[in-house]
Design goal:
Helix content is 30%, strand content 30%. With 274 residues, the chain is an alpha/beta fold. It folds into 4 domains: 47 residues; 62 residues, Trypsin Inhibitor V, Chain A; 66 residues, Trypsin Inhibitor V, Chain A; 74 residues, Trypsin Inhibitor V, Chain A. Strands 2-5-3 form a 3-stranded mixed β-sheet, covered by helices on one side. The protein is elongated.
């Protein structure tokens, strides 16, 4: 027979065993519950929520930035949204007529039928061409630079209406909008045409022989020739003339020429060592 001490020890061992089993069971239950919650969260976020967002009263805004305006409007309308062209913004990186910004942003969750405001690219920054006719070349250069434009080629032409060195025409009309940084060519008055005079031809870029032939055909001759050393331009090329092209000159008048010769420019020629 077992004594009271043996029974007590048996009961204690049984109680300890039950406690250990209960601890293991609760750990397993907690682990199982945690795993279930994780699976439920993934299911809701990846499957159920998108289904609700896309088929309920709300939806996600598609990304239409970079699309042409017409295509962007079709995409938004197909998604159940209302596209609104809000403004035009200059942007040299985005083609003209394409969307550069949208509000609400892409992937925003909004109500069905929500308005989506679109900002459209206007391309390069446009500036207004100032009126140059009637002004001097100096004033024209300042006027162009003030609005971000540059003075282009200058052509001289006789005029009975405008004084000498006054602009009589420009390549872009005043008030026209053109890209900032563009060049504006001008035509400048060389003064009245004197009876018995002829217009000096443009000799720049020609050889001396060609220039001499062109002057001879209009009854003019070659005057002084000044040579300018250069490594960049072709030797024997006329780079400047006086009187200028378009000026009026009397028959037999001489035209001075500035011509390229091989060699370094004077400022680059090394001085001999002492």
């Amino acid at each position: 027979m077992c004594g009271p001490g043996s029974i007590d020890r048996f009961l204690l061992r049984m109680a300890s065993l039950v406690v250990r089993l209960l601890k293991k069971t609760w750990v397993q239950i907690l682990l199982a519950v945690s795993a279930g919650l994780i699976v439920l969260f993934v299911l809701l976020n990846s499957v159920l929520l998108p289904l609700y967002v896309n088929h309920g009263n709300t939806l996600r805004v598609p990304d239409v930035t970079g699309d042409e305006l017409l295509q962007a409007e079709r995409t938004l309308e197909a998604a159940g949204l209302q596209p609104i062209e809000a403004e035009t913004r200059s942007d040299p990186k985005i083609p003209v007529g394409s969307v550069v910004f949208q509000n609400p942003a892409a992937e925003s969750v909004v109500n069905h039928g929500r308005r989506v405001y679109l900002t459209v690219s206007g391309g390069e920054i446009q500036v207004v061409v100032p009126l140059l006719r009637g002004h001097s070349m100096r004033d024209a250069k300042f006027a162009l630079e003030r609005v971000g434009l540059r003075l282009g080629n200058t052509t001289f032409q006789p005029s009975d209406q405008y004084p000498e060195n006054t602009i009589i025409a420009q390549s872009f009309s005043a008030e026209l909008r053109i890209p900032r940084g563009a060049r504006v060519d001008i035509t400048v008055s060389s003064g009245r045409v004197v009876t018995g005079s002829t217009l000096v031809p443009n000799l720049v870029g020609k050889t001396v022989t060609e220039g001499q032939r062109m002057l001879g055909t209009v009854g003019l001759g070659v005057g002084n020739i000044t040579y300018q050393p250069s490594y960049e331009l072709v030797p024997n090329t006329i780079v400047e003339q006086f009187p200028r092209a378009g000026d009026a000159a009397l028959a037999g008048q001489k035209v001075d020429l500035f011509v390229v010769k091989a060699g370094k420019p004077e400022e680059e020629i090394a001085l001999p060592k002492k």
